[in-house]
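3.2 Worked example (two chains)
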Amino acid sequence: MDQANNSKVLEVVRKFFEAGNKQDIETLASLVAPNLIVNNPLFGQGNVVTREVFKSSLDNILQAFPDLNMHVVNMITQGNTVVTEELETATLSANGRSYKMPVCVVMRVNDQGQIYETHNYWDTRTLFDQLQIDLDTYSKILREEK
């Protein structure tokens, strides 16, 4: 694989996590393709979301978890794919409960330097046990009107 391409792809993903920890939704949105393929253990596989839907979802997440932090532990890149191991922490504003859990994120970056696909992996039981909620409650919180 081309080392220069690996560095470019890795930099896009680094910027994504940096912007996420700064809660910079505009920068996050600028780093994703117009149509992002999202694979998530809570909401399903292969969902295609537009940049606007992505921004709205991020806004909801950051309202629910205003202190969200993604501490990157390791990043591995091959070709257009970056695998990130992170330790995620946040407090749910609805009940004041916090979680701390390891997360693995696989991101694919296109030739334009945009993330076009994400795969998120974490233990949902750990998340729900620490927050003391279930999937239905979690989903309602993330979809509440502002």
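3.2.1 Second chain
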Amino acid sequence: MTAHRSIYNENGISVDQLSAAVPSVFAQQPFSGVSSRYGFVPTIDVVEDLRASGFKPVQAGQTLTRVAGKRDFTRHVLRFRPDYAPTVAGSHPEVVLMNSHDGSSGFKLWAGLFRMVCANGLIVCTSTMGAVSVPHRSNAVEAVRSRSFDFLSRVDNLSDTVARYEARSLTDEEAFSFAEIGAQIRWGSERPAGLNARDLLMARRFEDARQNLWTVLNTIQENLTRGGVNLTRANRRSSTRGMRSVQDDTRMNVRLWAAADEFLSGDIVDVEAVEVA
């Protein structure tokens, strides 16, 4: 699994802080190995445009690499929070932006939620708040800004979705089934030995002890992201590791929300059906 570095500040990340922690945001040309057809658009141009439009970056991370000279061009993810958007179920709506300068991805946007109580993040992937790709073209900066405001204009739709999740009580069997889905999304065939999916349902705070789809989703997501879930092995005590890859973390969040949406509608969950760049 590829490691990554990240930085978080709920009051906003300064340019100097971004430069020190996520240098790939500031690339002024693409990595030397990309195609000559690659259209280059600096991420910092988008960051500054969104900041001027009222979106402050609160979290940023980038993939690390062992390839010589590639460090300043790798895939990176930033979360932007507007000061004026209403909260949704105690969470702050955000715009989540992914990009790279090594040819591995173009700009990609999601609507996001950020839970203040636990520094927990969810990336929304529903029919109304799904992912949007923006090609590396001359109008990319304006397109990202437009899509960001479009996401925020539909916060009411997101509120309705969360309300439906909160209203859907889960039986013990259903909660366990969703935890198994979460384990499949997180690890697939490389599931840690000794993992009991029921341990993914262990809430880390009192307010998450309720058993509806919203709180179960958040509890599973936090346990998968942060790690620390006990593993039962003979004569050995260990626990799961937290997410260390920007790309894997994004993919897991998107698929987990999509699974919850399908779970709510009663559909059979196909975790591989959600495509993430």
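3.3 Remarks
The chain has a mean pLDDT of 83.
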